[in-house]
Amino acid sequence: MYRLASYDFAAHIHLYRWKELNILLDVNSGAIHVIDETACEFINSLIHHQGDFYLATEDCSARHPSSEVMEVAGEIMALYEEGEIFTAEEKIALDLSVLPLKALCLNVAHACNMKCSYCFARQGDFGMKPALMSFDVGKKAFDFLIRSSGQVKNLEIDFFGGEPLLNFEVVKGLVLYGRRLEEEAGKHFNFTLTTNSLLLDERIRNFIIEHDVAVILSLDGRPETNDRHRILNNGEGSYAMVLPHIRQMVACNPASYYIRGTFTRHNLDFVEDLRHIVDLGFNNLSLEPAIGADSPYAIQEQDLPRVLKEYENLTETLLEYHRSGRDIHFFHYNLNLQQGPCLAKRRSGCGAGVDYLAVTPEGDIYPCHQFIGEKQFYMGNVGSGLLDRNVRRSFQTNHLENKARCRQCWARNFCGGGCHANNFFSNGSIAVPAEISCTMHKKRIEGAIYQDLHKRVDENQNFR
After folding, report:
1. CA dist 101 → 30, 65, 355, 358 (Å)
2. Which of 60, 131, 206, 454 is the most buried (most CB within 10 A)?
């Protein structure tokens, strides 16, 4: 009989039930299996007996016909031999110091025309002096990215704030500058603009369409949800003002768009906000949980049972839309289970501080926009183009290979160890995962796998 005495089942497989399905994820290979009750019991017995197939077979045969158990054991052995279950973890040497820079988040405005109560940027200025980026600083940022990008052809620029449209003329000038650089440097820029949409007039929309700029448009959902936190400077809600602009922008068919919302402790029934956004005619959306150790709006441990139940509701809702012919792209459920990122990328996370950096209006460089203003993470300035090696090294080495706790987690290849900033603001260390966020993310992964399985069945695809 086969024996897996030294196999770390807890770290390398995840067996769970979602409604009518028993789902097994082989963590290292990414293979997903749907198994019946007998197979589920056999695998649990196999885990209990530390990988001893003989003892697991004997144990299950006490409750099920021996022929049935032997058939299940044979199928599991075959999967094992084929490398689809109980696979070994691939050992790779991650050296992120060799990665070139490929993306910049340009905070072109440390100012905002709204005062959202949950804003991590402290109403747009990040706790710093309000400022707008000059074209000269932005130009230096582009030049810095070109110099630092090595052989990478496709580069990314995110225009962020605050509210970047408060500085639209500079955004416009930088997009045009980037398009000129493309021919000179043999690169291509993918531009994204994140906006509260208040200033999205026809002139700006036309520019966005003409120059293939992707947009992220902020809306939290139902009017009462949105207007509870997304507040104008005069104290009024913003829903009635921004919705027409968002509709007009999406109707122009931009390069891509996402409706980006935040749910807080005040709307734990956030699926109703998703339904509202979908009913408005939008197919691409994201609802992110409010986070932050000191935020009164952030999801707390006592909220988790309700939130996890709502993610189950979300999964069913997305399947309902799919079966009605409406393909809704919910950001956290876009796991691309068949063709995900390479193993190295899955184990290193988002790239903040390594191949992705953020730049302030003054040209100061931080690992990402959430670290702006945190002095210990200051990395340099685009004027000199020199980066603090110690800060950068701390992010280059902050991957799964150096996180013992994360290496034991079945979800590790879906998050790379979690958000650096969320970890830091929750635990004081970029290397220590934020437990509340981990719990929510694992539930989303389970739901996304369940949804994907049903989609494949609905599309008459075979799966085991």
Report:
1. 28, 60, 4, 11
2. 60
CA distance 254 to 331: 17
| Segment 11-16 long-range contacts (CB within 8 Å, at least 24 positions apart) | 11/89, 11/407, 11/408, 11/409, 11/410, 12/86, 12/87, 12/89, 12/410, 13/43, 13/85, 13/86, 13/410, 14/410, 14/411, 15/40, 15/43, 15/44, 16/446
Check residues 294 and 124 and name the one with the higher pLDDT: 294
SS3 call for 154: strand
**Mean pLDDT comparison of 328-332, 376-380, 404-408, highest-scoring range:** 376-380
Question: In angstroms, how far is CA 213 from the centroid of its own chain?
Answer: 20
Extract the runs of DSSP E, i.e. beta strands, from 227-366: 257-263, 284-289, 329-330, 356-359, 364-366
Name the one residue in this structure whose structure tokens are 């979800």.
411
The rounded distance, in Å, linking the Cα atoms of 37 and 233 is 57
Average pLDDT of 59-73? Answer: 94
Q: Judge whether 155 and 102 are in contact, CB under 8 Å.
A: yes
Distance separating alpha carbons of residues 407 and 49, to the nearest angstrom: 23
Question: Distance (Å, rounded) from C-alpha 231 to C-alpha 238?
Answer: 6
Q: Which residues pair with 15 in a beta bridge?
A: 24
User: Dihedral sign, CA of 453, 456, 458, 464?
Assistant: negative
Q: Is the pTM of this model over 0.90?
A: yes
Mean pLDDT, the chain, rounded, equals 92
Residue 338 has pLDDT above 60, yes or no: no
* CA angle, 171 then 187 then 358, to 5°: 45
Query: For residues 297 and 93, what is the distance between their CA atoms, to the nearest angstrom?
Result: 40
Where residue 236 falls (left for φ over 0; alpha for ψ -120 to 50; beta otherwise) is beta
Q: Given the structure tokens 């104290």, which residue do they identify?
A: 235
- Tell me how far apart the terminal alpha carbons of the chain are, to the nearest angstrom: 24
Mean pLDDT computed over 299-306: 96
Amino acid at position 409, single letter = C
Q: How far is CA 156 from CA 137, 191, 214, in A?
A: 17, 6, 11
pLDDT of 93 strictly over 90 = no
E-strand ranges in 219-327 read 257-263, 284-289
Question: What percent of the chain shows pLDDT beyond 70?
Answer: 95
Q: What is the C-alpha separation between 118 and 133, in angstroms, rounded? A: 24
Rounded Cα–Cα distance for residues 392 and 366 (Å) = 10
Tokens of 333: 């459920």
pLDDT for 463: 42
